[in-house]
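Hi R.,

As promised, here are both runs. First protein below:
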Amino acid sequence: GLIGCGCMARQLRKAWRRARTALENYKNSLEEKMEQALKTCFDMPHSACFISARDFEALGSLRPHEDLRDRHLLHFHDRLDELTNSPTRIIFFSHQWSGMDVPDHCGTQYATMVAALNKIVRAKGWRKRIIWIWADYISIPQSSRGQQTLAIESLTCYASAAHAFVIAAPPVMHKERGTLCDIHTYNKRMCAGAARPYS
């Protein structure tokens, strides 16, 4: 009786220690995963890139990233928390390319973006000097495939920091195909994942 009780007590203590060790290991693993998740949220694969609202209006058309970078018109943020804590207001423009090599060959989508910008300013009372614009051709590298891929992988981070998300999809004819591009084709291509991956 006493020997049996002693053996059982030892087994219970061993089982309790194993359970405590397993729980501690699980806790440490969970904390590590949470830290990694938080790091992923804040560390974007590619810096977020914007142009000020006033400079965007002055462009006259959508210009490539490298052109604006070399003219020192772009603003960069490396971390998501920098964006969320920034006093700026971010407008994220999404659209469907109307050409194989150019995003907006007739300028109609750019004009729609400018009109939307001014409508948002009037509706929300924002001052243009604190507004930054994100648009794919401007904000994503065009000449470096590697940098472009990293920026595309960061799209959800960019969009999550936006204060306004605008789809610019006026009816325009595709430059090469001669087919209509509008809100319906935008929605279809986005759902199918067939549009330009960053447009």
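And here is the second one, sequence first, then its structure tokens:
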Amino acid sequence: ASGGEKVGAEAAADASPASAVASPKPDAGAGAGAGASAGAGAGAAAAKPEPTKTFQYSTKAEAKDAFKEMLSEANVGSESSWEQAARTVAGDPRFSALKSLGEKKSCFNEYLQQRKKAEQEEGRRRLKAAREDFVAMLMDSDRVTSRDSYRRARELLQDDARWDAVPEREREELFRDAAKEMGKAEREAARKGREQRAAALRALLEQQQLCAGD
């Protein structure tokens, strides 16, 4: 019996090392790290900036036109400085249409001259339209006559937007000119009224004579 127990113990001892060896488990940390790396790579690919748009110009004139167009679209006014304009349009690809700083500044100065001329023409056009509207307001008004003073006209019409559209220094002169025209129109209307009344009176008298003859 003792010999059998010894054989059993030896067999158990021989078996124990094999049973103690466990299958290797996957490293959870390593797997997470790999996943994070993959995700970061995908994110970087998704966030990849688009290539900067470039323009090609066959002539220097085309490049200058594009540069001026850029300034105009950015609403760079005729009173802007180079530093202000450069900060406004520096991110536009057309800013590189002209290569040297000297070319850029020279083209900018040309743009300022053209812009100032356009602004002056627009100002003259608006003022001309405002003057015409001012006179039309006076002529069409049934509240103001040629006998009214400028002060009276101002009291009656100053709430009209067309009154303030004209510079104050010009209003009174325009009013005087309009008052002359209103006077002519009033006299003409009075003359026609008299003629119409006279014609009506003649027609009435003729009708009465005919009735008396019958």
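A quick note on the second one: Residues 168-213 form the longest helix (46 residues). Let me know what you think.

Best,
J.
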